[in-house]
């Protein structure tokens, strides 16, 4: 297989499945964690390695090292592997997704931005989602009519923080997730609830269901629920571990235990909360975004610029969502006619948001 984002948490879990089931790893793509990448190279012996920066190439313990987006695309073309795990972060993951599908490969997709920004131009039949929430929805689907799909959220770093102090929240506080450790961007997206809005957009493209929603489940053991038309509801319960969805994506079927089952007696109790727009302002546009899912590229671009500005100290935490909403309203009439329009609107929205922030 090809692993895009091999040194991140999802990539590490993908390689754990490769190790357990003796799967060949043909290509490793990483960012700047060169020491971990070299350890992975020593163990899995890939044919091709790709890093983000040209300056990192001499530090990589491999004879065939490419760099940048062009390097990723070339590695995809050269590799005969049929499976791609795309765990890249941000809009940078879109072109590799599109190229992998064009080449006839199957994509185990964790890169949210691919479907968020360009879902209508992606062949969903080539995609297997490996986010816990979408895997949970897929796992629950049976041959009975669905009324509504619901995914769950942890609530993020500030789910219990008094509202009046959120405007002064620091970067370190925002990165302090209550349930687990993740990458910097996704941790911020979790705190603003933008991550969950993205996942609803993904679900819309993946499952073609009109009624979609999200709720907070503070223990993060229920990942998805489906309301059927007969009035019953089924929940997918599992420990939060990406190895389970990755195993299904790569193996097709799984007939041995990947995770320890959840002991509900040990869990004791579960707590559910509504997503309050006062705490998560991005939720104000949730319904509007789901009505116009082609605007995913707009909210993604503004969000990425907003997060970068927050990390640089240019704006406050609550301003991230404010800038996303501003861009959504400014570009509300945008309708892409092709995937190239998506790349163009991404550039326009980034410029717009950067000017607004100043």
| CATH homologous superfamily classification of the largest domain | RNA polymerase sigma factor, region 2, helix turn helix motif
Order of helices and strands: EHEHEEHEHEHEHEHHHEEEHHEHHHH
Largest sheet strand order? 4-3-2-1-5-6-7
SSE-based structural type: alpha/beta
Describe this structure in words.
- It is a single chain.
- This protein is of the alpha/beta class.
- The chain folds into 2 domains: 2-129, Rossmann fold; 134-357, Rna Polymerase Sigma Factor, Chain: A (Orthogonal Bundle).
- Helices cover 43% and strands 15% of the residues.
- The chain contains 15 helices and 12 strands.
- The chain has helices spanning 9-20, 34-44, 68-78, 94-102, 112-118, 132-140, 171-174, 184-192, 194-207, 243-251, 264-267, 286-291, 296-311, 317-330, 339-357, and strands at 2-4, 27-29, 48-51, 65-67, 83-86, 106-109, 127-129, 146-153, 212-217, 222-228, 233-237, 272-273.
- The strands form 2 sheets. It has a 7-stranded parallel β-sheet with strand order 4-3-2-1-5-6-7, with helices on both faces.
- Strand 10 (222-228) and strand 11 form a beta hairpin.
- Helix 13 packs antiparallel against helix 14 (317-330).
- The radius of gyration is 20 Å and the shape is globular.
- The N and C termini lie far apart (43 Å).
- 44% of the residues are buried.
List keywords for this structure.
five-stranded mixed β-sheet, Rossmann fold, alpha/beta, 358 residues, seven-stranded parallel β-sheet, Rna Polymerase Sigma Factor, Chain: A, 2 domains, globular, 12 strands
């Amino acid at each position: 297989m090809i692993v895009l984002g091999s040194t991140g948490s999802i990539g590490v879990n993908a390689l754990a499945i490769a190790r357990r089931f003796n799967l060949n790893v043909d290509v490793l793509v990483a960012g700047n964690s060169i020491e971990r990448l070299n350890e992975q190279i020593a163990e899995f012996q890939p044919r091709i390695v790709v890093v983000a920066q040209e300056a990192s190439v001499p530090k990589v313990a491999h004879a065939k090292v490419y760099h940048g987006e062009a390097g990723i695309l070339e590695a995809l073309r050269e590799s005969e592997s049929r499976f791609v795990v795309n765990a890249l972060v941000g809009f940078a993951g879109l072109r590799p997704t599109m190229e992998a599908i064009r080449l006839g490969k199957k994509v185990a997709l964790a890169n949210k931005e691919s479907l968020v920004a360009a879902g209508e131009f992606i062949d969903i039949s080539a995609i297997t989602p490996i986010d816990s929430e979408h895997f949970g929805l897929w796992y629950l689907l049976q041959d009975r009519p669905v009324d509504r799909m619901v995914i769950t959220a942890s609530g993020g770093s500030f789910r219990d923080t008094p509202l009046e102090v959120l405007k002064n929240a620091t970067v370190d506080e925002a990165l302090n997730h209550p349930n687990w450790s993740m990458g910097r961007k996704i941790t911020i997206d979790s705190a603003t609830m933008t991550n969950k809005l993205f996942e609803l957009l993904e679900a819309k493209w993946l499952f073609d269901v009109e009624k979609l929603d999200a709720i907070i489940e503070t223990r993060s053991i229920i990942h998805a629920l489906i309301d059927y038309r007969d009035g019953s509801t089924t929940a997918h319960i599992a420990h939060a571990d990406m190895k389970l969805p990755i195993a299904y994506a790569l193996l097709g079927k799984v007939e041995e235990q990947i995770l320890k089952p959840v002991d509900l007696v040990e869990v004791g109790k579960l707590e559910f909360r509504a997503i309050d727009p006062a705490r998560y302002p991005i939720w104000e546009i949730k319904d509007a975004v789901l009505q116009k899912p082609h605007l995913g590229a707009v909210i993604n671009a503004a969000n990425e610029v907003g997060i970068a500005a927050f990390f640089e100290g240019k704006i406050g935490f609550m301003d991230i969502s404010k800038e996303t909403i501003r861009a959504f309203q400014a570009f509300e009439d945008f309708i892409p006619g092709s995937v190239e329009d998506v790349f163009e609107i991404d550039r326009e929205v980034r410029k717009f948001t950067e000017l607004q922030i100043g």
